[in-house]
Amino acid sequence: MKRVIVIVTIMLLVAGSAISGLMVLDIVPNPFAEPEEVAEGEAGGKESQGNSGFIPPERAPILYPLEDLVIPVILDARIAKRIYITARIEIAQGNRSAVENGMPRMESALNERLIVYFQTHFARYRRPDLRGIKREMVAAAQQVYGEMVSDVLLITVFEQ
Q: Mind spelling out the 3-state secondary structure of the chain?
């Protein structure tokens, strides 16, 4: 009986490998691939003009790392959970020293905004909202740095 189980398991592994290989080679359609949606009129017009719609930036953005944030979620006068955030801020060219000097103010503004945001958010929802976190972090960066910071990029967000 043990031999039959081992033989059937090996046959299933070989069959699965063969099917996945055929999917990679586009011999068998991949049921997990997202469909490509291209309108008929747009496809011919864009290719004939040579414009793909994507305009690459002239320079790579300068990303300045923020200290890892640990934000407590306080519900019913106790810490219900903690949210850990790793992020980078995108700064304009030549403003690195100004950003470094304002980092204590930035961390303070982030803590103030995110503690209030998480208390109101987790009173109604169970999971963190990445769009809301990013919106609050961008608002804090604009408050501290103004136009020197153009965006905040979230690297990791998890709760404990």
A: CHHHHHHHHHHHHHHHHHHHHHHHCCCCCCCCCCCCCCCHHHHHHHHHHCCCCCCCCCCCCEEEECCCEEEEEEECCEEEEEEEEEEEEEECCCCHHHHHHCHHHHHHHHHHHHHHHHHHHHHHCCCCCHHHHHHHHHHHHHHHHHHHEEEEEEEEEEEC
List Cα–Cα distances, 112 to 8, 11, 105, 126, 148, in angstroms. 59, 58, 11, 21, 21
Q: What is the largest CA-CA distance in the chain?
A: 72
Show Cβ contacts of residue 95 under 8 Å, excluding neighbours closer than 6 positions.
145, 148
Place of tokens 């290719």: 47
pTM: 0.61
Beta carbons within 8 Å of 152's beta carbon, 6+ residues apart = 87, 88, 89, 90, 134, 137, 138, 141
Instruction: Say if residue 137's pLDDT is above 70.
Output: yes
pLDDT tens per residue across span 101-124: 888 999 999 999 999 999 888 888
Whose tokens are 């950003």? That residue is 99
Distances (CA, A) of 105 to 100, 109, 151: 10, 6, 17
